[in-house]
Specification:
By secondary structure, the chain is an alpha/beta fold. The protein is built from ten helices and 13 strands. A four-stranded parallel beta sheet has the order 2-1-3-4, covered by helices on one side. Helix 8 (236-244) links the parallel strand 12 (226-232) and strand 13. The longest helix has 15 residues, at 203-217. It starts with a strand and ends in an 18-residue tail after the last helix.
Length: 306
């Protein structure tokens, strides 16, 4: 069979599509990225966000179209026979031979109103062993767990990561509220590929993240670098205070995103949320320019928001 893959709304390596490709190639099928000029037996479409456009109605060169991902169906999963196959990294030539993507746990016990993970995957539970992610000598691991610190299995996997000397990035962030002194000692031993990532989505999490940073750094020879994922909600003053707080921390970077309601794809994001996110994400601007002095558009300064 001729199989086509389409990542509808993201260029980020798509683990599900890599597994689909691997499974079909094992069956002797031909797999390629979708081309509107070829004919296919099956086109697999993966969509992450509910608010992005769906191109399925334009596909006329396939016998079957199979759609998956949270952007189509929050409960969608891979077929069982595809779930644990080794990903086909060849479909992403930009991924080097030392890098692997995967999950060690799935789910999260928290029920944050802005997060779809508990609805999609339920509470945190074991999923894979780190050695099954680090295949074929791939020792730089991008791990997409949503709350690995929330279960004993996750902590055991981090211990194994330290023992094996894998370099890792938990790219969906760690929960600073769960970091005890023992966990801080463990995290201080990890070989990090990038910054240590935390979620800082509420006022209370400012103190919790700062305390976690201090504990981890106390067990390191030199302080680590950190990244704060910050959700921008409807309260302007609260969001501004939380994002502005980290400007004096030279080792902290911000990733800011306006709140998106997965159940309301027609949601209109206020202009101030977009401007605040852009200000915080532009590191060179965030470090040197107060938000009130930021000019996102000619003739407009953000001081008008205050």
């Amino acid at each position: 069979m001729n199989i086509a893959l389409m990542a509808v709304d993201s260029d980020y390596p798509n683990l599900a599509l890599m597994k689909i490709s691997s499974w079909h190639k094992r069956q002797g099928d031909t797999v390629e990225w979708y081309n509107p000029f070829d004919q296919y037996d099956i086109v697999y479409m993966s969509k992450i966000f509910s608010f992005t456009e769906d191109y399925g109605q334009w596909i006329t060169n396939a016998n079957h179209i199979r759609k998956g991902g949270t952007g189509y169906d929050i409960k969608s999963t891979l077929p069982e026979e595809m779930e644990f196959v080794k990903p086909d990294y060849s479909i992403y030539p930009s991924i080097d031979s030392k890098t692997a993507y995967g999950f060690l746990t799935r789910g999260c016990p928290n029920k944050c109103k802005w997060c779809v993970v508990p609805r999609k995957e339920g509470g945190v539970k074991p999923y894979m062993d780190v050695d099954d992610v680090a295949v074929d000598g791939r020792t730089n691991l991008i791990l997409m767990d949503n709350n690995i610190l929330a279960c004993d299995y996750g902590l055991q996997q981090i211990e194994k990561i330290v023992q094996k000397g894998y370099r890792v990035d938990f790219n969906q962030a760690l929960d600073a509220r769960l970091i005890t002194d023992d966990i801080a000692q463990l995290l201080a031993k990890v070989r990090w590929l990038n910054q240590i990532r935390f979620g800082c989505d509420t006022p209370k999490q400012i103190e919790e993240c700062e305390h976690a940073m201090q504990m981890i750094d106390s067990y390191r020879e030199r302080p680590a670098s950190y990244l704060m994922y910050t959700m921008i909600g409807s309260d302007f003053n609260e969001a501004f205070h939380r994002l502005n707080y980290w400007r004096s921390f030279k080792r902290v970077r911000i990733v800011a995103q306006p709140f998106r309601d997965v159940d309301n794809p027609k949601q209109v994001i206020p202009k101030w949320q977009k401007d605040m996110a852009r200000w915080a994400m532009r590191r060179e601007i965030y470090a040197k320019c107060e938000f009130k002095d930021y000019e996102p558009r000619k003739g407009f300064k953000c001081s008008e928001y205050f």
